[in-house]
Amino acid sequence: MTRWQRLFPFLQWPRPDAALLRGEALAGLTVGLMVIPQGVAYAALAGMPLITGIYAALLPALIAVLFSASPRLAVGPTALTCLLVSASLTPLATPGSAEWVQLAMWLALLSGALQVLLGAVRFGWLLNLVNSPVLMAFTQAAAVLILASQVPALTGFRSWHSIAEGAGWHAPGLGFGLAALAALVAARRLRPGLPSVLAVVLISAGISHAIGFEAGGGAVIGALPQGLPALYLPAWPGWDRFSALLLPTSMITLVSFLETASSAKVDNGRRGVRWDQDQDLIGQGLAKLASGLTGAMPTSSSFSRSALNLYAGARTGWATVFSVVVVLIALLVAMPLLYHVPLAVLAAIVVLPIWGLLQPRSFTQLWRLSRVEAVIAASTFAITLVAAPRLYWGVLAGVVMALSHFLYLRLHPRIIEVGLHA
Fold first, then answer.
1. CA 386/CA 395 separation, integer angstroms
2. What is the secondary structure of 282-347 as a DSSP string?
């Protein structure tokens, strides 16, 4: 590998021919059609303007594939990273406000700069600070919080406050939510390779428009701006706000890269190459910088979309280039098609992949292997839920407990004396 290939990993891509491009175009089309509705749904989860979810799947995805060592990863908005954005900014601003968007952009810029710095100095080994039990517990606690946040929209309510009062229930919204969830589950089991998410979105939009869902009080996506995102530098938030973003920045940097690691290990294992975690840190960091400069939130590698990319037959980074073209075309001409999509359908899009993260058996299996690590995992799970929206306390507590256990074992080794006795 030459010096230029190390600096610009896309120079290692094979020279495309017609057969390769056909396969890559099909894989890119599949992922591109999936990320458009997912991006809108995840932007809602992050409290951002809905269009920013699609922005986060455009330039950031292209930058990531050009500069990452794992070119088949699908980079863009993810549920876990969007939840961290929402949780981090809840004490600081109102969701959807101009201040909220500015702070989210700062989170993207800060976490991106930190990842680029860590990759440049080859500090990818910091991943080892978060062991598997802590990550498993935090992920499951985050999944519970994400599912809880989607219950009102999925069931036809505006908020948990509306559910508590039993007011504002919209029965057609419940119907859309449950029907979309059932259709997505069925499509995943029967034809996992089809762009079922987009099909459900377009069908629900047509039905919603036909029955006058919005006029009857239903919540819909509404008008989304067409066109490409403009480059934008957020205003200085002030030292108080800036200092409040530092701890969430560290957590987003760590957790989002752990998301990347879960996909990258699979991708590189299938290619039979060693994973260059430092180069992927640089690529992911540059993607976050691009996202922040185009008005969006921090990005990460999506395990579900990366798996779909591999399933669809992607062999190189050209598949991501084609998916970016699909997103580009959608931004230019297809935004009006999403106007009548019920928000309950977006909630179903979020719920389906997150439901698979809930694995209570993991705690019982861990208990059989190591009771101490099981207690650490359970504590991490509980602290994450109790500390919400400050989710980072769960990870920090888990890391401290895991490191303390590690040091205790090293300082108190089990010594067995072997000798001859008369």
1. 12
2. HHHHHHHHHHHHTT----EE-HHHHHHHHHTT--STHHHHHHHHHHHHIIIIIGGGGTT-BHHHHH
Q: Which residues contact 216 (CB under 8 A, 6 or more apart)?
A: 170, 172
* Tokens linked to 324: 């970016």
The rounded distance, in Å, linking the Cα atoms of 324 and 352 is: 24
Size (the chain), residues? 422
Contacts of 74 (CB under 8 A, 6+ apart): 31, 35, 61, 301, 302, 305, 306, 308, 309, 320, 323
Give pTM, 2 decimals: 0.89
CA–CA separation, 115 vs 284, rounded Å? 7
Contact present, 301 and 115 (Cβ < 8 Å) = no
Question: Phi and psi (nearest 5°) for 133?
Answer: -60, -40
User: Residue 72, SS3?
Assistant: coil
**pLDDT tens digits, 162-216:** 777 777 778 889 899 999 999 999 988 887 767 788 899 999 999 999 999 998 8
